[in-house]
Amino acid sequence: VIHKYYPMAAYGDFFEKTHAKSSAKEVFSDLANPDMYPTYLHCSYGADKTGTIIYILCALLGVDEDTTYREWEASLFCHSDSFYDEMDDFVVRFKKLPGNTMQEKAENYLLSIGVTQQEIDSIREILLTD
């Protein structure tokens, strides 16, 4: 078992905070490594940091927008408008990224923070191949 801690932020910080981008890069670089599987991602609460990473990951894998949002929503263990407000702001900002599809937007975001095309291809191969 390998335990890794990523000093992560959530939601809009993925666009603004250098440490959030750096941590996200590290997470996705690790997800590109077949030796890191099986893997379990979790944060203190399970919705904010993890939910944001999983939203990007689902988009990268070509999951449709509604399902991607519902996957994030399923991680909530309580109802709080503040969670929805933060995520809705993230989604608006995510949709403004370059690309015609959610998948292209996720790929362009990851490339912009330093995840390589080879790592992106590896994530897809690991998670989309039988």
Descriptive overview:
60% of the residues lie in helices and 0% in strands. The chain is built from seven helices and no strands. It has 130 residues and is an all-alpha fold.
Mean pLDDT: 86
Radius of gyration: 14 Å
Number of strands: 0
**Helical stretch tally:** 7
Percent strand equals under 5%
Category from helices, strands and their pairing? mainly alpha
Q: How is the biggest beta sheet arranged? A: none
Order of helices and strands: HHHHHHH
Report the helical percentage: 55-70%
Shape: globular
**Through-space gap between termini:** 23 Å
Question: Low-confidence spans: pLDDT under 50, at least 5 residues?
Answer: none
Primary descriptors:
mainly alpha, 7 helices, single chain, 130 residues
Short description:
The protein has 130 residues and is an all-alpha fold. The chain contains seven helices and no strands.
List the helices and strands and how they pair.
Blueprint: H1 13-16, H2 18-31, H3 49-60, H4 65-74, H5 81-95, H6 102-112, H7 117-128
Helix pairs in contact: 3-4, 3-6
